[in-house]
Design a protein that fits this description.
Strand order of the largest sheet: 2-10-9-4-5-6
Strand content: over 45%
Helix content: under 10%
Number of strands: 10
Distance between the termini: 40 Å
Structural class: mainly beta
Number of helices: 0
Order of helices and strands: EEEEEEEEEE
Amino acid sequence: QVQLVESGGGLVQPGGSLRLSCVASGIIFSMNSMGWYRQAPGKQRELVASITTGGRTNYADSVLGRFAISRDNARKTVYLQMNSLKADDTAVYYCNTLAGVRWGLGTQVTVSS
């Protein structure tokens, strides 16, 4: 059974940093391109960063230069390092394969002073 478990969210002040983690099970992790998505209140879920099986990364314009996605195939884990956080980054963050499997519960990120 596919399971994605996100962690690492929390409350942080503007300009601060967080590192999110997502552990995957039930999939052949190394063969899947992975993405980090977020959904803010009243908005659609959006893809903010992705990483291919070969390690190629891509970012939404809104996070380019501030966020970094990485993966550890041995740990079946994808990470999202978030720096210079802004209030607009407040959302629930999810990981998923780019092909799309069942969503996890996500992890809440709140950026506020």
